[in-house]
UniProtKB/TrEMBL annotation:
CDD domains: RadA_SMS_N
Any Pfam family the entry gives: ChlI
Residues in RecA family profile domain copies: 74-223
Position of sequence motif RadA KNRFG motif: 260-264
Binding site residues for ATP: 103-110
Record has Oxidoreductase as a keyword: no
Protein name as annotated: DNA repair protein RadA
Residue span of region Lon-protease-like: 360-466
Membrane spanning stretches: none
Family, per entry: Belongs to the RecA family. RadA subfamily.
Domain note: The middle region has homology to RecA with ATPase motifs including the RadA KNRFG motif, while the C-terminus is homologous to Lon protease.
Top-level taxonomic group: Bacteria
SMART domains listed in its UniProt record: AAA
Length: 466
């Protein structure tokens, strides 16, 4: 059999299809279900031969102007009527802005957007709500339950992209809500709804319409098991604002954070309470995380944490068993990082001489709030020491600061803002790291103890004699 010529082999290699990952650009000669570079599933697609195209200059429709002469009125935000939502967005919705709302199933994304759409329709604006996951009757029942029935709130149940764009042309809305971008498909693209190509096509078409018509658009997005937004990574780059809606199923508290925001800050947090009558903003949620017991109880300590720029009071509770347990004692935590708690317990045992090695220790937060800031270390240490000594901390006391392995108390950010919140809520004593106040004065009615070590903090909390 004659051997194939090198020309034949070269043409065969050129005609062989190539595959590329839509997330990171990794290429391979054959299709695989998982990218070998970024380990993402379902992102490897076939690509054609690369052709070089030359783009000629096109006539300019509008000449460039000095930046000081650009009209800024087109970028003014219009409030949605949901104060906590507006706080995160930076004042409201900008015409032509595209907002992607992501979160786990059942967290309340659709309820929040339906409430925002209803409030916008109540001001006289036309709102088009496109539901691709539920029937129109299901959404209508939810709207009736939360009091969101408005004459100018238009509702349609569609899963075809062309039909959705037709509804936009016909109704000419001022606000568009799409629930969700992963359940709408385009007939011009192969693949099922939710695939990488479909999500990219649907998002690109909706964003194009929003920019051309100066139409504010709210998109609902699904998340994967690890909490990241499903679909191609380019989806987050294309939209203007990416919001993450968080919350535990057993808790009514919901937190809204801006991961990306072209029109405002990304360090604001919106607090909501999800109930039977819908979702309600919480302008002052600190009371949810404090037990409010009339008398001080051993093993409890209050701290002030920062969620974005918002200070929130949170209570930590600890329980240390009185009986020693042979072998390894249990360490159970709820609302705190277990590794961080284990480190603080080791410091308490070594630097304060509190025997915890053979005693079960439990530490939890009130209200199901999750605390990840290092500033809660001091409150954890004081709560554990209080429980171990069975001596309560003085009423009206808060503690904040990072605890080092040497037993020192380190400074944290935003101390004046935290102290102002504590003073507003009636606390009278604060234990903070040394140098936290600087040249500033303490808030009126609040006595501040600046401490250098964990032992000094225990003296200030009256857990040990001075």
């Amino acid at each position: 059999m004659p051997a194939k010529s090198s020309t034949a082999r070269g043409s065969s290699a050129k005609s062989r299809p190539a595959y590329k990952c839509a997330e990171c650009g990794w290429t391979t000669a054959k299709w695989v279900g998982r990218c070998g570079e970024c380990q993402a599933w379902g992102t490897v697609e076939e690509v054609g031969a690369v052709t070089v195209r030359t783009t000629t200059a096109a006539p300019v429709r509008e000449p460039a102007r000095p930046i000081a002469e650009v009209d800024v009125e087109a970028a003014r935000a219009t409030p949605t009527g949901v104060d906590e939502f507006d706080r995160v967005l930076g004042g409201g919705l900008v015409p032509g802005a595209v907002v992607l709302m992501a979160g786990e199933p059942g967290v309340g994304k659709s309820t929040l957007l339906l409430d925002a759409a209803s409030r916008a329709a109540a001001t006289g604006r036309t709102v088009l709500y496109v539901t691709a996951e539920e029937s129109a009757a299901q959404v209508r029942l939810r709207a009736e339950r939360i009091g969101a029935l408005r004459p100018r709130l238009l509702l349609t149940s569609e899963t075809d992209l062309a039909t959705v764009l037709g509804h936009v042309e016909h109704s000419n809305p001022d606000l568009l809500v799409v629930d969700s971008v992963q359940t709408i498909a385009s007939g011009e693209v192969d693949g099922a709804a939710g695939g990488v190509s479909q999500v990219r096509e649907v998002a690109g078409a909706l964003i194009g319409v929003a920019k051309r018509r100066a139409l504010a658009t709210l998109l609902v997005g699904h998340v994967t098991k690890d909490g990241s937004i499903a679909g191609p990574r380019t989806l987050e780059h294309l939209v203007d604002v990416v919001c993450q809606f968080e919350g535990e199923r057993h808790s009514r508290l919901r937190l809204l954070r801006a991961v990306k925001n072209r029109y405002g800050p990304t360090d604001e947090v919106g607090c909501f309470e999800l109930g039977e009558d819908g979702i309600v903003g919480l302008p002052d949620p600190s009371g949810l995380f404090v037990s409010g017991t009339p008398e001080p109880v051993a093993g409890t300590c209050v701290t002030v944490t920062l969620e974005g720029r918002r200070p929130l009071l949170a209570e930590l509770q600890s329980l240390v068993s009185t009986d020693t347990t042979p072998g390894n004692a249990r360490r159970v935590t709820s609302g705190l990082e277990s590794s961080r708690m284990a480190m603080v317990l080791a410091v308490v045992q070594r630097r304060l001489g509190v025997a915890l090695g053979n005693r079960d220790t439990f530490v939890a937060t009130v209200g199901g709030v999750k605390l990840t800031e290092p500033s809660v270390d001091l409150a954890v240490a004081l709560a554990v020491a209080s429980a171990a000594k069975d001596r309560p901390i003085a009423a009206g006391t808060i503690a904040l600061g990072e605890v080092g392995l040497a037993g020192e108390v380190r400074r944290v950010t935003g101390v004046p803002r935290r102290l102002s919140e504590a003073a507003r809520l009636g606390f009278t004593t604060a234990i903070v790291p040394k140098g936290s106040l600087g040249d500033g004065a303490a808030p009126a009615g609040l006595r501040v103890h600046e401490v250098e070590t964990l032992l000094d903090a225990c003296v200030a909390a009256r857990l040990v004699a001075s």
